[in-house]
Specification:
This protein is an alpha/beta fold. Among the domains are: about 260 residues, Rossmann fold, CATH 3.40.50.300; about 110 residues, Orthogonal Bundle (Helicase, Ruva Protein, domain 3), CATH 1.10.8. Helices cover about 40% and strands about 10% of the residues. The chain contains 20 helices and eleven strands. It has an eleven-stranded mixed beta sheet with strand order 2-1-11-10-9-3-8-7-4-6-5. The radius of gyration is 39 Å and the shape is elongated. The mean pLDDT is about 80. This is ATP-binding protein. InterPro entries: P-loop_NTPase.
Length: about 525
């Protein structure tokens, strides 16, 4: 180690006295320096190669004058957690129901979209909506049922506008006070998608009338454009508005699809109609005829025969009977039932928080009008206290929306990508590119999503991500109630053991009353079956 000495001299000394002080300090430093010793005196081996580095580099010896250059230790966070077991993520806190176990922190994972929305810390979110994405049998339905049913105890209501598989019906029937609205199958229940709905508490008369009118127009245009497979012309749009206004005036503000259908017929028969409105009423009238006289009659064309129970913990609209009539019938049913539900629950001043579970969420985005309605509903959800849960099997589901590179498909991908809270379950290999490009997920997360077990998912809440196992906290009652794969359950008996075939038992299935002819002639003679005695 280098040694330094400093000399301080008074300022009133002469030049000769200062020089004497410096010489004295130099002698002191020289006397204090240890004498140099040879390598032999220090009992060190002679270097194999002459130079300052010695045998430490050449022979791996015990000494090395050169500074070692060691790379820093690198490992994954999973292995580092084993070295530092008490270092773990703090999670989202303990507000909201328990959804599962955080596998990274080995702690219970609580989640509530409303608690995350009001969280002012860096873990907060700007939206209450949730995107659920995963392959078949990955545990999506069981996880969402766990989230929603456990949230009932926190005062949240669960609404399923359209249950295409009927899997939510058993959940609603098992919960005390749950209500099921069944459509089709001879039930006689009807929903009027043009219902006015309850008045919002904090809205003026003008605001309320404007919101009701826009919702009715949007529903009509979405139904007709979805059936026609294209956008309406300006003349058709004007004819629909005219028919709706006439129906409202004739029914004293109680319009129905049947009433609009009849008004379109009157407009189509008018020969002196201005702006060629008679031509624009033809196509929309043929579309609504399907609801009045076609395969969807008896469901949406007249006034509602059922009411929405505001106090029920869960309300499910069972549309499983209608989804067997084809994709178009299923899409029209989902639009009508969703419009009826939205007219009831869109009341911000009600101070009621609700989950709106959208099974087969891509069916709500099949036309430009329905996409615009869906986008507006997602944007206003936090103002209404609603958390929309959009469930998709894969990103490829949105390829059914419009043509390639069309405005409809781009808008659909934009809507899904803007949902901040995401639950990604196990995905197929074909989904890797779509997840990275459409949802901008990191490549390690995409690879992890391909290896997740049933019930495990990657939760993106705000700027943070969590690896959660939902079924680790499921009770036997929940597990039996939420499972949806009873038809593919394993067999009751175990056929894994090797069974020896009993030849005698086989002979009883193919009895042979005649003794076989083992001679050469018998082998060459064709077998024509047993001879009659």
């Amino acid at each position: 180690m280098a040694r330094r000495s400093y000399t301080f001299t008074p300022g009133n000394l002469s030049r000769a006295e200062k020089a004497e002080v410096r010489r004295e300090a130099a002698r002191f430093v020289h006397d204090d320096t240890p004498a140099r010793t040879s390598r032999r005196d220090r009992s060190l081996p002679e270097p194999a190669v002459a130079g300052p580095f010695g045998p430490g580099i050449i022979q791996g010896g015990y000494w090395n004058l050169a500074k070692p250059s060691l790379p820093p230790h690198q490992a994954t966070s999973q292995h580092i957690a084993g070295i530092y077991p008490f270092v773990a993520d703090s999670g989202l806190g303990h507000r909201g129901p328990v959804i599962g176990v955080d596998l990274n922190a080995d702690a219970l994972w609580h989640f509530s979209p409303w608690e995350s929305y009001i969280d002012a810390s860096e873990r907060g979110t700007f939206s209450t909506n949730i995107l659920v994405l995963g392959a078949y049998r990955s545990g999506k339905s069981g996880t969402i049922k766990t989230l929603t049913t456990r949230s009932i105890a926190f005062g949240h209501q669960v609404v399923v506008p359209s249950d295409p598989k009927g899997e939510w019906v058993s959940v609603a029937e098992a919960i005390p006070g749950g209500k099921v609205i069944r459509l089709g199958g001879g039930t006689g229940a009807r929903l009027n998608p043009l219902d006015r709905g309850p008045r919002r508490t904090d809205s003026t008369d003008e605001q309320h009338e404007q919101m009701v009118k826009q919702r009715r127009i949007g529903t009509l245009i979405a139904i007709i454009e979805m059936t026609l497979g294209g956008r309406l012309t300006a003349v058709e749009h004007a004819a629909i508005l005219d028919a709706l206004d006439r129906c409202i005036a004739r029914t004293h503000d109680r319009p129905t699809l049947r009433g609009v259908y009849e008004e379109l017929g009157r407009i189509a028969g008018e020969t002196d109609a201005a702006f060629r409105a008679a031509e624009g009423a033809v196509q929309p009238r043929f579309v609504l005829r399907r609801f009045v006289e076609g395969d969807l009659s008896g469901l949406f064309e007249d006034e509602s025969t059922v009411t929405f129970d505001q106090d029920a913990p869960i309300v499910v609209t069972d549309t499983s009977e209608l989804f067997a009539r084809g994709d178009l019938a299923a899409q029209l049913t989902q639009v009508c039932s969703t419009a009826w539900i939205q007219a009831v629950i869109a009341d911000r001043a009600a101070k009621r928080t609700r989950y709106v579970v959208r099974e087969e969420g891509w069916r709500d985005m099949t036309s430009l009008a329905s996409l615009q309605m869906f986008q507006q509903w997602l944007k206003l959800s936090r103002h209404y206290g609603i958390s929309n849960i959009v469930i998709l099997h894969k990103m490829g589901d949105l390829d059914a929306v419009g043509d390639a590179d069309s405005l409809e498909r781009s808008l659909a991908y934009s809507i899904v990508g803007d949902i901040e809270n995401k639950f990604v379950f196990r995905v197929n290999q074909q989904e890797q590119t779509a997840l990275r490009q459409r949802l901008n997920l990191p490549a390690p997360h995409v690879e992890m999503a391909r290896q997740l077990r049933k019930g495990e998912f990657i939760a993106y809440v705000g700027q943070y991500s969590y690896l959660v196992d939902c079924f680790a906290t499921s009770t036997p009652w929940e597990f039996e109630l939420f499972k949806t794969d009873d038809a593919v359950a394993p067999a009751d008996q175990d056929d894994a053991q090797l069974r020896v075939i009993d030849t005698g038992e086989l002979d009883s299935y193919w009895p042979d009353t005649l003794a076989p002819d083992t001679s050469l002639e018998g082998w060459l003679t064709p077998n024509t079956g047993p001879k009659e005695q």
